[in-house]
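Researcher: Please translate sequence to structure tokens.
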Amino acid sequence: MGRRRALAAIACILSFSCSSAPPKTDNVTTVKNQAAEATTFGNAYYRQGRYDLALQFFTQALDYNTSVDNGDGIIQSYNSIGQVYMALDQMGMAEDIFIRARDRAKVGSQVLFFVSSNNLGELYLRKGEAQRARETFEAMLAIPSSAVSAAQTGLLNHNLGTAHKNLGDYQKALEFFDKSLAVNLKEKLFEEAAADYYMIASVHSKTGDLAEAAKNAELALKYDKQIENSLGIVKDLYALGLISAKRADNEGAYDYFQRSYLVSNTLGAKDDMRRALEQLVPVAEALGKTTEAGSFRTLLAALSSP
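Model: Translation complete:
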């Protein structure tokens, strides 16, 4: 979506005067149901990567919610719209919408305040603004634990760990990842637990404790395999390849990078395929596998061609 269309969409959001505005009605329940239906369509298109259509339906849901002053619905619509802008890499627009959602939620639902603040913090992480992310997540610690779910508590600790890792405070990062992991294992949230193990492995790799890094990356792989999270498996295998390379274990690195490539190839995940191939070329050469190294170069060139 071009910038001009995006600006038009955001103007529509802020003025609530879109052509898609719902007809006036005295039946508040009907309008809320229409907003929910529009949100359902928006979510479906968002998952498909059809962001123009997702934005259209989320904006329509916002119009419906605004027409009956449905405060919680308005906040939810803001967050949905912000997610679309973040997916489109339009970070300024996403930030504005998430701030609007968070500020409105301050005087309303603590759960929606959590969701809005978390979206904003994750946006700052995406932008590389780890300090702002940490401050945003820390402000969420004031929300009573009774007001949020266990999964949300785990998510907050995970994101705090990520912010501290990005700031280079590795000990603090491990403390938060351990807290998140304890929650996620207890709640049997295995995808989230795998993400915790992955980040713990990353911290240990950064600090040079490669044995601990490998152990936790293997645990991440175990849980991602358990829930058949293929994208997670790709990243776990790649991480294990990097750890093996740091340990001068070229045979292990070759095996992990090749497996990461093969899984990403079945998914058509070109960025992950490229990353694995870029590592496979020098590792294959170090092992004297010149024919394989040539094949990897050819595959890499094919990925880079238009």
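Researcher: Any highlights?
Model: The two ends are 21 Å apart (CA to CA).
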